[in-house]
Design goal:
Helices cover about 45% and strands about 15% of the residues. It has about 350 residues and is α/β, with parallel strands linked by helices. The chain is globular and about 60 Å long.
């Protein structure tokens, strides 16, 4: 029984998990830092790194205890090596290297985005290739997933990631922290047709996204209402924003399906992954698109959409099966694209307001 310990510390979740090569999740422990960051309305990197230092050893011990194993039972240890907040990434990677060194285990540095990208193979056992919409707080990409380590970008955001747009819009609407789930809750009681918000990039060539203008449109509506929103206006704006995002994701994904099927044929899976994939309204809209296009729709369970260590352990399993392990001189990095050989995207390197 080949077992991999996975460690995830890229942002504000401290997590450890043990996953078997046959896709069984023996443990998956996640400690959220929401309370530590709530006062500041967002993640503070230094606080996040210190929290990882304070809690990671205990989280690993709990994951090993739940799995009912010792370190001698492991085949490898994997840890997020980027992209992410570099302080936290260093904590997790250094801890994993120490475990690997002491116990004579292979160490594997995992791209956090690859963890999300491969989660559907852990949960649903799907085969390559498949089309992936990766949507999170820092990333919004459409990718042809052709194998572990083989990703071809079809589209990406030219400004804000969709999760970032959710968080900033939630702050404009004074919905609290964390913004994405708070906005989804507010939208449940809202009228998505009340406010005529733009549908970014809908109908335009290509598969790229843009959400900065939508965020600005929400701000203007808030200003037009005098800045003091009652509960009804707040709910209606949240629902209108969410509907606009759904329309944009469906349009862009539809174009990516055409490009993907031109290379790989029809009927391959359409996967949505990442933290924003936990939004039920967006999942339903994307599932409808897949059904209309005759594609199997795969979205991980909600608990495996947000950051977790099971996805890191599984990515470690995929790498281990290919003989792709890293030396202890592996260097964590704050930026780590899945497609490093691709041409820079439109807006890459631009300073965002």
């Amino acid at each position: 029984m080949d077992l991999v310990l996975g460690i995830e510390t890229s942002c504000d979740e401290t997590a450890a998990a043990v996953v078997a090569a046959d896709r069984r999740i023996l443990s998956n422990v996640v400690l959220s830092q929401i309370d530590e960051h709530r006062l500041y309305g967002g993640v503070v990197p230094e606080i996040a790194a210190r929290a990882h230092l304070d809690h990671l050893d205990a989280i690993i011990a709990e994951a090993m205890r739940e799995a009912g194993i010792g370190f001698a039972d492991l085949a490898a240890v994997a840890a997020t090596g980027g992209p992410g907040l570099i302080g936290g990434v260093l904590v997790g990677a250094t801890t994993a290297k120490a475990i690997a060194l002491v116990h004579g285990l292979p160490f594997i540095g995992i791209n956090h985005l690859e963890g999300h990208a491969l989660t559907a193979r852990l949960t649903d056992g799907i085969d390559f290739p498949y089309l992936l919409l990766l949507v999170s707080g820092g990333h919004c990409q459409l990718l042809a997933v052709e194998g572990a380590g083989r990703y071809r970008r079809l589209g990406t955001t030219i400004d804000d990631a969709v999760g970032e747009a959710f968080d900033k819009t939630a702050k404009l609407l004074d919905l609290g922290y964390p913004g994405g789930p708070a906005l989804e809750r507010a939208a449940e009681g809202g009228d998505p047709a009340r406010f005529d918000l733009p549908r970014p990039m809908v109908g335009k060539p290509g598969c790229d996204f843009s959400f900065s203008g939508l965020k600005t449109a929400v701000r203007r509506r808030v200003e037009e209402l005098g800045g003091a929103l009652d509960e009804k206006a707040r709910a209606d704006l949240a629902a209108s924003f969410q509907a606009a995002v759904a329309a944009s994701l469906v349009d862009r994904s539809g174009r990516a399906i055409e490009a993907f099927e031109a290379d790989h044929g029809a009927g391959r899976p359409f996967v949505v992954a990442g933290g924003v994939a936990a939004n039920r309204t967006l999942r339903a809209a994307l599932a409808g698109l897949a059904e209309r296009r005759g594609m199997p729709f795969v979205a991980p369970p909600l608990g495996l959409c947000t950051d977790n260590a099971a996805m890191i352990a599984w990515a470690g399993q995929e790498k281990l099966a290919l003989g792709q392990v890293d030396g202890l001189d592996f260097r964590p990095r704050p930026r780590w694209p899945l497609d490093p050989g691709a041409a820079p995207s439109i807006g890459a390197g631009a300073v965002k307001a």
